[in-house]
Amino acid sequence: MCANVLDNVSVFDECESDPCQNGGTCEDGSRKYTCTCPSGFSGDMCETDINECGSTPCQNGGTCSDLENRYRCQCKRGFAGMNCETDIDDCSSTPCMNGATCQDATDSYTCQCLSGYNGTNCETDVDECNMNTDSCTDLQLCINTPGSFKCECKQGYRMENEICKDIDECSEQSSGCQQNCTNNDGSFNCSCSGGYNLDTDGISCKQDPALSELCQNASLGCEQGCRLKSGITGTIRHTTDDVECFCNVGFRLDTNSKDCSGNRSVFYSKTHFNLHIHRTRWHVDRADVR
Ligand SMILES: [Ca+2]
Ligand SMILES: [Ca+2]
Ligand SMILES: [Ca+2]
Ligand SMILES: [Ca+2]
């Protein structure tokens, strides 16, 4: 009897009721069973899903989801990687412009602009002229440039030793004045000899008709022009003794008191080249007619 009972016990299969959960493998023993659990499960009957998030593997604020034998991290914006361990390089698309330095931050970046630029991406040129942050003097015009500005001398001035100085248009013979030139700061004035009036162009001189007649009667044979002698004004009731020959700007009256000589090469090299030639010819023609 006893032997039979013992036999019955020893042959009873404890695994028959399939006690191991979650795919655990059951091993029958004497009055017991042993579960061998698959990875990710524990407990006598493999009933416990091991929490792989228990070790808080997700970094930088990532959210951990426990799964079978593994976990998944949901990363915060700006981070990547299995454990959200990587701060994404937000500078990798080189968003900063015009030579700016990019500094990576969390899900963002900052640009350190070179002087002369601003804006989030340093995309905007600073208009120093408009903002009055330029260093141009009163004699200079401010010209805005990308990233900077430049100062150029105003009309009538020229840079000399980094200072804008008045151009002496008279001594440089660039004024275009037909007869007399007076330099002033930033410009010049043309004037005419006696018997001539300044024309509407402000540089050429028109002979008064009365003087024209007087000069013809005087028959001086002037190469370039005939005028009232200095100190004599007006054009009426003068005698032929009141007129003399004179030469245009750039020429000098010869000792014969009628011909003109001058350094034509210098004269013609000036900016009002065409104007001068034109006026000179005009006068020469007039002289020839006389
Ligand atoms: Ca798990
Ligand atoms: Ca970043
Ligand atoms: Ca600028
Ligand atoms: Ca001047």
TrEMBL record:
Keyword Disulfide bond listed: yes
Record Pfam families: EGF, EGF_CA, hEGF
SUPFAM superfamilies, sorted: EGF/Laminin, Growth factor receptor domain
Disulfide bonds: C37-C46, C75-C84, C113-C122
Annotated EGF-like domain residues: 11-47, 49-85, 87-123, 125-165
InterPro entries: EGF, EGF-like_Ca-bd_dom, EGF-like_CS, EGF-type_Asp/Asn_hydroxyl_site, EGF_Ca-bd_CS, Growth_fac_rcpt_cys_sf, Notch/Slit_guidance, NOTCH1_EGF-like
A single GO BP: Notch signaling pathway
Record keywords, A-Z: Disulfide bond, EGF-like domain, Glycoprotein, Repeat, Signal
SMART domains: EGF (SM00181), EGF_CA (SM00179)
Keyword Cell membrane: no
GO cellular component terms, semicolon-separated: cell surface; plasma membrane; receptor complex
GO molecular function: calcium ion binding
Protein name: EGF-like domain-containing protein
Species name: Ridgeia piscesae (Tubeworm)
